[in-house]
Design goal:
Structural class: alpha+beta
CATH class of the largest domain: Alpha Beta
CATH topology of the largest domain: TIM Barrel
Oligomer: single chain
């Protein structure tokens, strides 16, 4: 049995058996004692109170011992076995046996005493096995990456157990067959303990070096509370939720029966519990996708709204509807908070905090909640009898009281989210190998524009001065050094700070030009600066630029002196405006990452004559073996030379717009990436470039299936998603050799395509893909306002609908200026990368992020570049345009779907393994989690052999696996974020991918 399957089976069996036992302890023992042993309500009250105390003390004590020994399995298996026996023991507690064996003791009194003692014993073993050991095992076993998926299931188990007991076993108690009732429940629990011997695998845990007493008091220490603020704030959220629940829960059924005079409470409970449980489980993966903090407030609102609806509900239908809303919110909150508690529990100390958790989750709520409820319904005027005691009928006010308490959950959550933001502010110091070897005096020295190269080049990368303020005036002093071109948030910048949208980031660099460098014009180039930039030379404003992903330059000859002061002003609005932002987030976490502010690509100088070659556009007409050149300059004619290896195949004077025919061409493919060298001169200025002879198109194979074509032949795109993030440089690698290593590894694994995701890389990356043979799918950088999780995540994941993207507001695209800016930047992106040999496909929009008018946008894109194919709306919100039927599938089985476009799996996989010592932090995110290389690799093989390979003959033409590397919280990479550990055997991956061919 695979590890994940074993984990799920263990969780479901022991979680459900435990909840069955707790259900009869909480809801049936008092009835059993009152009906068969003693009508003394003081006995029942004592039993309930002592049981609660026993549960809390036991969990504290046994959790500490469990951590001391570093063991969970023995406590679970032996505990469950004895727990079940203690439940069975209640079958023998009756007045007949007491009279028979203890004739000299008053039977009712003795029965009450025996019940209290056995209840405490049962609670001891139950709390040992379930509350202490099993809960600690869950914390140890389940990775943070998809914890919410498990937590939502766990949150539903108490409700499912209630349905099972009420629906299947309650009749036994009504008939007085208590012995059979206890034998069934107790026998099941004991059988579970035996099964656990074979099913449960001990999760490695470090033995605590502290004494048992130290472990017991550990969670009460002020220093521990201070060190684990987020954990205790999460516990406080749980406390408030549990109190809010206990305000109404003890009165739920009585309210329906005695106040509303509805006797079909079983029908109401069944409908509410089943539907809300299903909703909770369904949203578990969505919580993991978005992150718990984004779902917390909507879940709280659902809970509060449901409570308010219950206040007004009077009919069965309205009660069911209100109850579903209320309990869905309650269950989601329970899952989110419990997941947060487990996430923030220090490693190898899970047992130490289970007792503390019991205080917050059980003991305090069961005292405070019912007291609030009793105060609210006091003097209601109506009464009912419960176990011989006359009590007041609950009124709708219990729902208002519960709603008020529920709203207070947001108070600790506010401080929890603030604490979380503090922890996220600084980019963690996880270095790549090249980062460890980083030389601040030789930073990215490679020529930054490989397809338009001159011999005039000064690299300004390296040590600059910086300061951060909120002034628009050039500062008189600077606070420290920064390494350019690394964003201010990155480790390699040596600053490692986060700025706000109100801050101004200032740079300063002093430079002098070598003698004879100036040929007439001097150009200052910036590869990319995020986001709003002003450039000053010697205190004079040279120019401005808006947008964080595209290169720009200024001609600065008139501003130059012998020694020059370069000042750069930067403001970064990150995700607070409509500008392009990619996956940057001011509140990073989950699939959204640390902002990249300031200069993040090479800054450099070049000099040209006044009459110079400004740009060259290279178009390939593969079918007629022609290369078309459009040369932008002030000359009418240019000398053009083309070399095929060392052989000159063309050397003539041509016009600025010309077509050159080649004989016996060498085609470019990923397997044989042949490049022609190109030199262009106007007599005064000379540039060198290159091109490749290739053709990208759509066609049909011999079976009539639509395919992506390369050089007129069907070609399967075996791709990987590449975010372009690095653990130490964020957007910028410590060395371009890192990019080269990544591409080399992917080719060795059998991949032939990289989807550059929501980022435009330095031009050197595209040169490496051209040179080494790697197809590129290029995403446009997304922008727009704040995205609606409902639109971009919930509805697509639930497969509810595709929304027409003319509804700009739904896609955060109301701002016309933002839409116009996107189109402007898309045109510049096409111009920038047009000559890239390896670039096969454009992706204007991804998963609805800032999407608008996708069909029109894709046609506009095609009018600018008809040589490449287009995925117009990758993933979802398909507008039926573009060349691809594009699907993102992570959780469902991958099945073929017919369409008249090329069928492509443009994101899938995301299989996760957090390699200890190589993760960004503890908040790990992924779609399917594994704890070792063997399980991860086996699942990868199975996924492809069983689901991907069989679909090729049906029409599947391209795949994009998520993803190249781990990125911050995401641990679903082929390699770790620091690029030090390859998680897969290269040969194994290649053997799988080699099966994907036509």
């Amino acid at each position: 049995m695979k590890k994940e399957q074993r984990t799920w089976l263990t969780l479901l069996i022991f979680g459900l058996l435990g909840q069955l036992a707790w259900t009869i302890e909480n809801m049936y023992f008092n009835v059993f004692v009152y009906n068969t042993l003693s009508g003394n309500v003081d006995v029942i009250a004592s039993m309930v109170a002592l049981s609660a105390i026993t549960a809390t003390v036991t969990t504290l004590f046994m959790g500490a011992i469990s951590d001391k020994l570093g063991k969970r399995k023995i406590f679970i298996t032996l505990g469950y076995f004895i727990w079940g026996l203690t439940v069975i023991a209640f079958a023998f507690i009756n007045l007949e046996n007491i009279t028979k064996y203890f004739p000299y003791i008053e039977a009712a009194t003795a029965g009450g005493i025996f019940a209290i003692i056995m209840d405490c014993i049962m609670t001891f073993f139950g709390s040992t096995a379930n509350d202490a050991a099993f809960n600690a095992w869950i914390t140890d076993e389940i990775d943070n990456t998809d914890r919410s998926k498990y937590e939502t299931v766990l949150a539903t188990l108490p409700l499912i157990s209630m349905i099972i007991v009420f629906g299947l076993l309650d009749g036994l108690t009504q008939q007085g067959k208590w012995d059979t009732f206890f034998f069934i429940i107790g026998g099941s629990v004991s059988a579970g303990g035996i099964l656990g011997i074979f099913l449960i695998k001990e999760t490695p845990a470090t033995k605590s070096k502290n004494s048992v007493f130290s472990n017991i008091i550990y969670g009460f220490k002020p220093s521990v509370v201070k060190e684990n603020k987020s954990l205790y704030l999460s516990l406080t959220c749980l406390l408030m939720l549990a109190i809010a629940t206990q305000v109404f829960m003890p009165y739920f059924i009585i309210y329906i029966q005695a106040y509303l005079h509805i006797n079909d409470y079983a029908l109401i409970l069944a409908a509410v519990l089943l539907v809300s449980s299903a909703i909770s489980v369904l949203f578990g993966t969505v919580i993991d996708k978005l992150g718990t903090f984004k779902v917390f407030i909507p879940a709280t609102l659902a809970f509060v709204i449901g409570l308010m609806l219950m206040f007004f509900a009077r009919t069965i239908g309205t009660i069911i509807l209100s109850g579903i809303v209320m309990m869905s919110g309650n269950l989601l909150l329970t899952a989110i908070i419990n997941g947060s508690i487990r996430n923030y529990t220090p490693q190898n100390k899970a047992g130490l905090f289970q007792g503390i958790r019991m205080i917050f989750a059980v003991m305090l709520p069961m005292i405070i909640g019912p007291v609030i409820g009793a105060l609210v319904i006091k003097n209601s005027g109506n009464t009912y009898v419960d176990l011989g005691v006359v009590k007041e009928v609950p009124t709708p006010a219990i729902w208002l009281a519960s709603a008020i308490v529920a709203v207070l959950i947001l108070v600790p959550f506010y401080f929890l989210s603030k604490e979380d933001k503090k922890q996220r502010k600084v980019h963690n110091k996880l270095l790549t190998t090249y980062g460890e070897q980083f030389d601040i005096n030789n930073v990215l020295p490679e020529y930054p524009r490989p397809q338009l190269v001159r011999d005039s080049y000064i690299n300004l990368n390296g040590i600059w001065k910086y300061t951060i303020n909120q002034s628009e005036e050039i500062p008189s002093s600077f606070e420290g050094d920064v390494i350019v071109p690394y964003s201010i948030e990155s480790v390699l910048s040596r600053v490692n700070k986060t700025i706000t949208p109100d801050d101004v980031l200032w740079y300063k660099k002093i430079f002098t030009l070598p003698k004879d460098f100036n040929k007439g014009l001097v150009h200052l180039h910036f590869g990319a600066v995020d986001q709003i930039c002003r450039v000053y030379i010697n205190k004079q404003l040279v120019g401005e630029h808006i947008g964080g992903y595209l290169p720009f330059s200024f001609e600065i000859s008139q501003y130059l002196q012998k020694e020059n002061e370069l000042i750069v002003y930067v403001k970064d609005l990150t995700d607070t405006s409509y500008h392009s932002k990619g996956k940057q987030s001011s509140n990073r976490g989950g699939i959204w990452y640390t902002p990249t502010s300031g200069i993040w690509q090479t800054v450099w100088l070049e000099s040209t004559p006044i009459n110079y070659i400004q740009s060259v556009k290279i178009s390939i007409d593969y079918d007629v073996k022609k290369v078309n050149l459009v040369i932008n300059g002030n000359s009418e004619n240019y000398n053009v030379a083309i070399k095929e290896g060392n052989k000159i195949v063309f050397n003539q004077k041509v016009e600025s717009n010309t077509a050159i025919k080649l004989d016996n061409i060498n085609s470019w493919t990923p397997e044989s990436p042949f490049l022609y060298d190109l030199t262009i001169s106007n007599g005064e200025d000379t540039v060198s470039s290159y091109f490749g002879m290739r053709k990208f198109s759509i066609g049909s194979d011999k079976y009539g299936k639509k395919r992506l074509m390369l050089n007129n032949q069907p070609y399967f795109h075996k791709g990987v998603l590449d975010q372009g993030y690095y653990s130490d440089g964020i957007y910028t690698p410590a060395s371009y050799k890192q990019m080269e290593d990544d591409i080399k590894m992917l080719k060795e694994m059998g991949f032939n395509t990289i989807r550059k995701h929501i980022k435009i890389d330095p031009l050197y990356f595209y040169y490496l893909c051209d040179k080494m043979g790697m197809l590129v799918w290029q995403d446009m950088v997304n922008g727009g306002g704040r995205y609606s999780d409902l639109i971009v995540t919930y509805l697509p994941f639930l497969k509810v609908l595709n929304i027409k993207d003319k509804h700009y507001g739904l896609f955060a695209r109301k701002n016309k200026a933002g839409r116009e800016l996107f189109i402007k930047e898309m045109k510049k992106t096409v111009d920038l990368l047009y000559n890239t040999v390896s670039l096969a496909l454009w992706v204007p929009f991804n998963e609805g992020w800032g999407q608008f008018d996708a069909i029109e946008i894709s046609e506009l894109l095609r009018s600018w570049d008809s040589s490449r194919t287009i995925d117009h709306a990758s993933g979802w919100h398909d507008q039926k345009g573009g060349d691809l039927f594009s699907k993102h599938i992570y959780f469902d089985k991958i099945k073929f779907e017919d369409d008249d476009r090329v069928w492509a799996l443009t994101e899938y996989g995301g299989y996760s393994w957090a390699v200890n010592g190589h993760t960004y932090n503890d908040a790990k995110f992924g779609y399917l989690v594994f704890n070792n290389k063997l399980d991860l690799q086996s699942a990868f093989i199975q996924l492809h052999n069983e689901q991907i390979v069989p679909l090729v003959e049906k029409g599947l033409s391209a795949i994009i696996y998520t993803q190249l590397s781990d990125v911050e919280d995401e641990v679903n990479g082929l390699i770790t974020y620091d690029r030090k550990i390859v998680k897969f055997d290269t040969k194994v991956v290649k053997s799988v991918l080699d099966k994907l061919q036509f």
